[in-house]
Request: fold
Amino acid sequence: MKSAVDFWAFSQAGRKLAELHLNYETVPIYQDAKVLGADGKVFNLGDPKPLDSRLRGNDEREGFWRVEKMKVPKTDGKKDLTRLIYNAHITVSGIPPEAYDYVVNGKPALDWVVERQCVKTDKDSGIVNDANDWAIETIGNPRYPLGLFMRVVTVSLETMKIVNALPPLEIASD
Reply:
């Protein structure tokens, strides 16, 4: 680095990014978006208590929160990045499009969540990977896939704030 000030700016940004990314599952859920039921009712995801083990598999709320395949809807043939169709019962609106600016391996982090938090059968093995099973059996929270999406909105926005605040990268030459 050409200056110590710039070095420390990058060092501090790296620490903030490491903290944010290592703890992505515990960052606050993005609160400015609305989670709407099909009836227009607004839901607060919050951080519900884990389900009592006696309710697992029998709680009708699990079906309400069940995700098969999330989808970013299109408006006039173009993706509407401000919205997410979570399932037949739940739609999210008010997602900041700039949350899609944080890209990992050529794809927005939010797209990775949408792609992976679903029910998918492997063509070769026939093994079913069901994000709902993980959410209920391991986490004890049928809302987990949606909560993860909303946390990654927060991580994406905060990441871009940190990165965009960095000074220009100037390397000292010997």
Observations:
- The first strand starts at residue 34 and ends at 37.
- Helices lie at 4-22, 60-65, 109-116, 131-139, 144-164.
- The beta strands are 34-37, 42-43, 74-75, 78-79, 83-85, 90-93, 103-104, 107-108, 119-121, 128-130.
- Residues 47-60 have pLDDT under 50 and may be disordered.
